[in-house]
Amino acid sequence: MSDKPIYVTQPDLPPLEEFIPYLEQIWENKQLTNNGPFHQQLEQALCEYLGVEHLALFVNGTIALVTALQALRITGEVITTPYSFVATAHSLLRNGIKPVFVDIDPNTCNLDPDRIEEAITPQTTAILPVHCYGNPCDVERIEQIADTFGLKVIYDAAHAFGVQYKGESLLRHGDLAVLSFHATKVFNTFEGGAIVCPDAKTKQRIDYLKNFGFADEVTVVAPGINGKMSEFNAALGLLQLKHHGEALVRRNQIETRYREALADVPGISLLPIPPDTNGNASYLPIFVGDDYPLSRDALYQKMKDAGINGRRYFYPLISDMPMYRGFPSAKAEKLVAARGSAEGVICLPIYPSLLDQQVYTVATLISDAQ
Ligand code: T4K
C-alpha cells in the first residue's frame, strides 16, 4: 500500500519563482496573445531544441491536428490507426473526412505498414499514423507507400516530443507532424500543441488558419479557427524547456528500472525497445497475457485498490466507439492485433518525480499478484 495515490503521470512544473519574471513582463507589455513576443520566442526555441525547420504553436494538439488536415486540403478517406487517443480520429470527422482503420503491429503498437496498401482506394488522400507512446512508426515504409500512391502523411506525434530516430528528430518525417503540450505530456504548457512543417509557405498557411484565416487586417483566405497559443502558455513553455533535459534523463532511468523489475514476470510483456531511437519514456505500457494469474482488468483494479492509478491507454479502440463502429474498416476481424493490445494494456505510472521506491512498489505488486 502506498500512502498517497500514484497517478499514471504528474505534470512537470518549474519552480514557481522562476515563472514570476515572465508574468511580470506580460503584465508590463500587455500583449496577452496573437503572436506576442513569448509566442515568437518559443517557436524559435522549439525549432532549435527539436532540430526542425518550422513550427507553429497551437492552443492544444487537437486543434493542431484539425488544422494540419485543413492546411494540406485533405479530403475523402484517410488511413489511420484505431489504437490511439480519440482525438486522432476526431480530427478527421471534424474535417468531414472518412477514417479508414488499419491494424497495428503489436510489437510497436503503430500502424502495420504491411496492411496499409490493401486499404487504399481512389478516395484515399492521406495517411494519419501515430507514433504511439513515442515509438517511431516505420517512417521509411510509410513514406515509400505515400510516394507510390501520391498520398500525404501527417504524423500524430502527440507522444513524440524530443524523440530522435537515426540521429535526427523524428518530427522531420511526414508532410506535417503534430505535437501536444497537454499537462500529461513529457513537455507541457498546461494546454498546448504545435504543427511541425518543412517549409515557410506551409507555415504561413497554418498561421493564417489558426488565426481565423486572416492573411492581413482585411483579407480572410480560408475558414480558419482560433487556435492561437496565449502568451501565458508560451512563456511557461520557454521556462519548461530549460528543465526538459533533466526530466528526460529521469524518465529514461525510471523506464530502465521498470524493465529490469518486470523482465521475468510470467504473463507480463513490454514493447521491445525500438531500434535506432533515443526515446522520451513518455509512457510505460505493459501487456497482461493469458498466462498471468489475473485478467488485465483484475490487475488494473488491484493496482487501483493499492492507490496505483495506471491507465488503459488505449482501450477501448477508437473503432469501437459509437461514432466509428459503423465504418466498414471498424470490423473486429480486421483489427485483431489492435484489439489484442487494447485488451491487454495497462500504462504504468511514469514521471520525473516518481521515486525509485514507488517504481519498486508498483513492480512488486505486479510480480506478486495472484
Ligand atoms: N493525439 C494523441 C495520440 C494523444 O494522445 C492526444 C492527447 C491528442 C492527440 C490530443 O492532444 P491534446 O488536444 O490533448 O493536446 C489525457 C489527455 O487529456 C490527453 O491530452 C492525452 N492525449 C491522453 C492520452 O491522456 P485523460 O482523460 O486520460 O487525462 P486525465 O485528466 O485523466 O489525466 C491522467 C492523469 O494525469 C490523472 O489521473 C492525474 C494526472 N494529471 C492530469 C491532469 C490533466 C495531473 O496530475 N494534472 C493534470 O492537470 O486524457
* Main sheet characteristics: 7 strands, mixed
Would you count the extended β strands for me? 19
What fraction of residues sit in β-strands?
A: 15-25%
Going across the major beta sheet, what is the strand order?
2-12-11-8-7-3-4
What average pLDDT do the residues reach?
Answer: 97
How far do the termini sit from each other? Answer: 16 Å
How many helices does DSSP assign? 10
Structural class: alpha/beta
Helix content: 25-40%
Give unreliable regions as ranges: none
- Shape field: globular
Radius of gyration: 21 Å
- Identify every distinct bound molecule in the structure, by name, code or SMILES: ligand T4K
Helix-strand sequence: EHHEHEHEEEEHEEEEEHEEHEEEHEHEH
Secondary structure layout plus pairing:
Blueprint: E1 6-7, H1 16-29, H2 37-50, E2 54-58, H3 61-71, E3 77-80, H4 87-94, E4 98-101, E5 104-105, E6 110-111, E7 124-128, H5 139-149, E8 152-156, E9 164-165, E10 168-169, E11 176-180, E12 193-197, H6 200-209, E13 214-216, E14 219-220, H7 231-262, E15 268-270, E16 277-278, E17 284-288, H8 296-305, E18 308-309, H9 336-344, E19 345-348, H10 356-368
Parallel strand pairs: 1-18, 3-4, 3-7, 7-8, 8-11
Antiparallel strand pairs: 2-12, 5-6, 9-10, 9-16, 11-12, 13-14, 15-17, 17-19
Helix pairs in contact: 1-7, 2-7, 3-4, 3-6, 7-10
Ligand T4K binds at residues 7-11, 60-62, 84-85, 87-88, 130, 156, 158-159, 180, 182-184, 193, 309, 311, 313.
